[in-house]
Amino acid sequence: xxxxxxxxxxxxxxxxxxxxxxxxxxxxxxxxxxxxxxxxxxxxxxxxxxxxxxxxxxxxxxxxxxxxxxxxxxxxxxxxxxxxxxxxxxxxxxxxxxxxxxxxxxxxxxxxxxxxxxxxxxxxxxxxxxxxxxxxxxxxxxxxxxxxxxxxxxxxxxxxxxxxxxxxxxxxxxxxxxxxxxxxxxxxxxxxxxxxxxxxxxxxxxxxxxxxxxxxxxxxxxxxxxxxxxxxxxxxxxxxxxxxxxxxxxxxxxxxxxxxxxxxxxxxxxxxxxxxxxxxxxxxxxxxxxxxxxxxxxxxxxxxxxxxxxxxxxxxxxxxxxxxxxxxxxxxxxxxxxxxxxxxxxxxx
Length: 349
Description:
Structural class: alpha/beta
């Protein structure tokens, strides 16, 4: 097998959803964010596992993602579209019973005229300056929008992974001011917002990265293991170099393993000469530059050549690898490439 194996623990994803559901205040609905192909892990299998765990509302980024999700889940679960109702989406939204979170006056007009009576939500901008209507815009359209019966009003926290950041409280106060008295269910908290406490929970929470084992949910069960096959080994003499641009030089005689995986698979060049792979509980340093399809690893200290080395697993999670690369776990997860053979673990109860 010449490609890496990405093992996804569906039981762990379900357990993480249940834990974040328990962490949400009593009476609050817990949704599940499965955009970007369930953060790169395969939306069909992941969403069905979440639905089996109890999730009844899902969020994706685009109507096209919503169509894929509807095919996997079938009728019933609610699918919310964070980008709203864009030009060309009307038939897809109507035919597949998708619920757009309308972000602008243009989107409100498009939806109410194109799909009168169809469900929708509203997204408000409370300071992130990304999606949603600002306070004055919302004041101008709120009377007739509320008459049309939105199913949800939401906003998004910019700094929820920094609990002491004063922007969290500022967004909370503004969201309350913009939505109190509407009689419409409200949502402000994703994973980080859940962990900020009940005052951020309102009527619905929207965990995303925490479902997949990522920070800031430090209590998450690990979800992902990425094992890369060893293709070839070399005996490298002292003074010889490894990889492009002579990216690493041997001080002593060294045995290297060339493993399948590279920046085409989401393992960026920033990991060059920095990352660690693992043979069981034994660390093995990545040496030289990460190339498109290949990584080289020092295995001199191993008693035998392994078939695979883990770059994500029990001893190095997604966030630890992201720290080495100078990025965040979200980017590592969503960059894991299509060449990996994805296998899913789910122990039946």
